Amino acid sequence: MSETIKKPNIIPSRRVFLKGAAAMGTGAAVLAGINDGARASGDPIPVGQAAPLTDFAAADGVEFKNGLELACEEINALGGILGRPLEPYFEDTKQMGDPTNVQAVQRLIDRHAVHAVINGYNIGSGAAVQDVIADAGIIYVHYDTTIGHNNLIKSDPARYFGSFQGDPAEFWYGPGFLKFVQGLEERGEYKRTNNKMAVVLSAGVYAANIANAIKETGADYGWEISLFETVNVPISEWGPTLAKIRQDPPSVIAITHFLPADLAQFMVQFAANPTPSLVYMQYGPSIPAFREIAKEASVGVVYATLVGALQDEIGTAFETRYKEKFGANAGHNSGAQPYDGCYVWATAAALAGGTGEPGNEEQNRKVAARMNALIYRGVTGVTRFVPNENAAYSYPTQVADSSLGMPHQFLQIQDQTKSGGLIAPPPYATTSFQLPPWIKG
Questions:
Q1: Which residue has the higher pLDDT, 335 or 14?
Q2: pTM for the whole structure
Q3: How far apart are alpha carbons 192 and 64 in whole angstroms?
Q4: pLDDT single digits (tens) 329-351
Q5: Residues 232-269: tens digit of each pLDDT
Q6: Record keywords: DNA-binding included (predicted)?
Q7: pLDDT digits over 124-161, tens only?
Q8: What's the pLDDT tens digit per position in 21-37?
């Protein structure tokens, strides 16, 4: 047990603690204008991140790194955690997968003795790193977006007390999408041409879980799954899949594969001979590369994210700060994930009396307890954790109150030069759904 944590040599004043904790709890919009001399100057607190900084997911990995760096910089300007600044360290997970992810996190613990690991996503089971975290007794916040995390935590909440998924599990994409389409129909914004829905997925756990959720609940919303096809990725030639779609045109095409370049190629090839189908794609269109490749073929595509910067006062202020620091083309939606995750952890740690180094399980259990009690409004909306699952609630599918769950955001590209407009859910929507040009035609 660390005496540094239990009896710190430097004890910040009550005024500094309350000021810092309150500012962090109000959300990121306030932070941009606060710097009143409270900058942290105590012993640094090492915080780690394992991210895909190279290889095929590097576009996201770099933004995860940026998001954590920005959060640490802002928190340090507020006085850090009880006067101690955060010092970030990074390890590359490259092509990801459980062995590589585990090794990267283990290096953060062994080399830098990090008190917490704040990640974006890493492809894998989503339930392997948690054992490394449990053995070290530290805190882990990630955005793997997998039901595997929820199931693991439920299996042994005491062992996995320190592992948190900062967004809802991917399962919620399925019923959430069906509920979204139902809403379009009820408002008269969209009318199905038939009851057929084509579902296209890749072999990974993430894409498969979402596709299966759509398949299993589609009948409840009056849908027949007319095509359920798994494609090998990366994929640039969509001809065989498109031939099946054109042979039996569905009213909706739902693609749960998520890599932006692959999805862009689908739209380019679909646009040559489109079917009158609403096209929904998973996550990839939120990355600027999708629009850069698909160009005008991207207009009309609907996509969703369970975690992304909202297009409101708090979210747009974050976007401005983020792009001023990292460039106009920086992907702030990816960076928002570890950014909010870091604030959730830092706020809880301040309320718990400090962080804990590897082996200081007693203090980190206090931090975890405060995390479980928080309702934190950040740039991605509300983070509130499901008890004994340590994953964020989803609004509106899982909870009906927008102040108690993270919004399942649906966006549509309506201008190829701009990010998608937020079309659902209320009260967060900033624009209305538009029929895609290929349906109008």
A1: 335
A2: 0.85
A3: 38
A4: 898 999 999 999 999 999 999 99
A5: 999 999 999 999 999 999 999 999 998 899 999 999 99
A6: no
A7: 989 999 999 999 999 999 999 999 999 999 999 999 99
A8: 433 444 433 333 334 55
What domains can you pick out in the chain, each with its CATH number? 3-168+310-395 (3.40.50.2300), 171-305+408-440 (3.40.50.2300)
Give the mean model confidence (pLDDT) for residues 262-286.
96
- Cis amide leading into 387 (omega within 30): no
Contacts of 331 (CB under 8 A, 6+ apart): 59, 60, 63, 286, 287, 288
